[in-house]
Amino acid sequence: AAAARSGAAPPTEEAAARARPAPALEAEAVRAADQDGQDSGLSFFEVQWQPAVQNTEPLIEEGKRVLVLAEGDPELLRELAQELGGDHACVTDLPEDPQEFSNYSKVLFVASARVAVVDMLAGALRVLKRVVRMQLRLQRMRRAVPEVWLVVQHTQAARLEDLRGAEVPKHAGLWGFARCLRLERPGFMVGCLDAGPRERGVGDLLQVVRSVRTRQGDAVEVELVARDSAERGPELHTARLVEAAPPAALSLPESFFAGERSYLLSGGTGALAVLSARWMADHGAGHLALLSRSGRPPQDADSVFGQLTSLSGLQVLIRQCDVEDAAGVAGCLQELRGSMPPVRGILHAAGRLNDHMFEYLEAEHLAPVLGPKVDGALNLHAASAELELDLFVMYSSVAAMVGSVGQANYAAACSFLDSFAQHRRAQGLAGLSVQWGPWASMGLSARSGIPQNRFVRTDPVSCLDALGALLGGGAAPTSGIVGAARINWSGFFGRMKAVPSHLKNFERFKEEEERFKEKRGRGQIAARGAGVPGQARMLPLLSDFGRAGPGRGLGSLGSLSASPLLGLRPGFIPSRPAAGATAGREEDSDSDSAESK
Q1: Handedness of CA 119, 121, 124, 126 (dihedral sign)
Q2: Contact criterion met (CB below 8 Å) for 18 and 311
Q3: 100: which DSSP letter?
Q4: Which of 4, 73, 136, 469 could crosslink 112 through cysteines, CB 3.0-4.6 Å?
């Protein structure tokens, strides 16, 4: 995109005037900084796939049985049973008896390309919830709990060329599911394995699965990719999240979006899309099409929306269009061809929340959240197939990158966007998925009142500056996926006994937090313990247990109420509701991006 802009004409007087920061954006940045009391700098993150060097323990161990499921595909299940023989069990559901269940060392949930996205996730949800319930019973019986492995094909790219010519990675959402479940249930072992091309038969798939080694030392590698090597057979790669170097500059030329070209934004009247549109106008965009299911901006974006639509020299078309409707999207793009210059870029920011703890997440909570993200991206992709796009940006979420409590469905939707960006790039198309942390003071996160014990909100100006760095090439990820967030790692790791393998690069924060709590605890006991009866000594400690403190995050609970403990707004009820009540948080917006944390 930067090269395409290198010959752009100098900005007109109107464009130069628009390039001055919008008063609403400046005020928003000041207000967000005042609320945070911290600098607004973002960190950039990427996943690196590293060759596994000393992995041990086969996924399918000699002399041990595995339980295999193939959700919604009886033909695949029969083929798996034929290849595996009688040593293992291929079933349509898990056994009810915990003692029988404990006879298996692993549960393999194999995703079929013939099953729809929502149906596959619903099946995985049913299986994972059953195993969680079984885990509690087995632990009381002092029996081993089988590991669960989600086996998919061609959803991740250890190298970008891995996905060249591949089908759309429609089951990539299982990775987001697993990351959230690990966060909600720190002792639960669920891993993800991408076993390579789908074109091969079941025999080749099982050959890859049998070759996989899941441990490095004492730790289980929970995210693995197996890829072919002509010399050595399947090669195993392990995921590691790394902090990317900050870009040298966080600014775009004022004329970056200038010229006879149009840009389309889905979720177009939502807070983040409106802010993004205003920012694009600041950098030369003269023609913007806002697709909106509702056609109305939310209250927290009304000021910026009014500024946007009143700018001189800027053409803004608002079209009521549900991006989940393929025919509607195609018709809308066809209509724009007659009223605007050619569309050269798409920013997909539509989204919807329906939050529930995993235990109370149901199949009916999946489609409303997956639709705007997954179907919306696919419909925009198909409708723009004949267009020469310079950019195709999707607003994903930090929930997909590391997990988020109560948001497994949303993380699944955003995990698809991440893999889809790689898929597009592998086919030579524009593709970028930005895993945003929460934006401050507007959007779903601000309206929901979520505490900042894991993710710290960032002012919108800094977020848009970061987007400029990504589009301008200063921080462009080679993979097509980049996280842009401020993470309180101490709070994030608060309840975890062990740091998941893909987050090992940040394990030092948990170690520092544990040393801090141990030192603080010894000091409290020494100061309060002298000459005080045992029961009286406990009361101040319990009282202090509910107070928030710098860097304490989940380790301090934040308060004795459930909401801060779970990282969710007050009113989120993590218990099964009575009929007609809700156990979750539902937000409906044309643009939530990732600020829903």
Answers
A1: negative
A2: yes
A3: H
A4: 73
CA distances from 224 to 52, 54, 158, 399 (A): 9, 14, 10, 19
> Pairing relation of β-strands 104-110 and 65-69?
parallel
**For residue 529, which amino acid is it?**
G
SS (H, E, C) 6-49: CCCCCCCHHHHHHCCCCHHHHHHHHHHHHHHCCCCCCEEEEEEE
Distance, in Å, from the CA atom of 101 to the CA atom of 168, rounded to the nearest integer, reads 34
Residues whose CB falls within 8 Å of the CB of residue 200, separated by 6 or more in sequence, listed in order: none
Q: pLDDT digit string (tens) for 156-183?
A: 999 888 899 999 999 999 999 999 999 9
CA 164 to chain centre: 23
The sign of the torsion formed by the CA atoms of 91, 96, 100, 104 equals positive
Residue 545 tokens, joined: 């247990």
3-class DSSP assignment, residue 568: coil
Per-residue pLDDT at 442: 60
| Domains 49-241 and 245-487 alike in fold | yes
Whole-number CA gyration radius for the chain? 25
What single string gives the DSSP state of each residue in 372-436?
A: IIIIHHHHHHHHTTTS--SEEEEEEEHHHHH--TTBHHHHHHHHHHHHHHHHHHHTT---EEEEE
CB 21 within 8 A of CB 30: no
Q: Is 582 helix (H, G, I), strand (E, B) or coil?
A: coil
- Give the Cα separation of 350 and 594 in Å (integer): 10
φ and ψ of 89, to 5 deg: -115, 125
pTM above 0.85, yes or no: no
- Whether the Cβ atoms of residue 397 and residue 435 lie closer than 8 Å to each other: yes
Q: Which two tokens stand for residue 260?
A: 């006879």
Architecture of domain 245-487: 3-Layer(aba) Sandwich (3.40)
Per-domain residue ranges of the chain: 49-241, 245-487
Write out the two tokens for 350. 């539509």
Whose tokens are 């007050």? That residue is 570
CB 355 within 8 A of CB 405: no
Cα–Cα distances (Å) from 496 to 199, 335, 476, 583, in that order, read 38, 52, 32, 24
Q: Across-strand partners of 585?
A: 355
Beta strands at 147-152 and 55-58: parallel, antiparallel or unpaired:
unpaired
Residue of 421, 412, 423, 269 lying closest to 350 (CA atoms) = 269
Q: How far apart are CA 402 and CA 82, in angstroms?
A: 37
CA distance 351 to 273: 11
- Low-confidence residues in the chain, pLDDT < 70: 1-40, 229-233, 246-250, 298, 300-301, 441-452, 474-476, 522-597
Closest by CA position to 110, among listed 149, 66, 139: 149
**Pick from 403, 405, 395, 392: which is nearest to 373 by CA?**
395
Which of 571, 567, 596, 589 lies closest to 581, judged by CA?
571
Exposure of 334 by Cβ count < 10 A (0-12 exposed, 13-18 middle, 19+ buried)? Answer: exposed
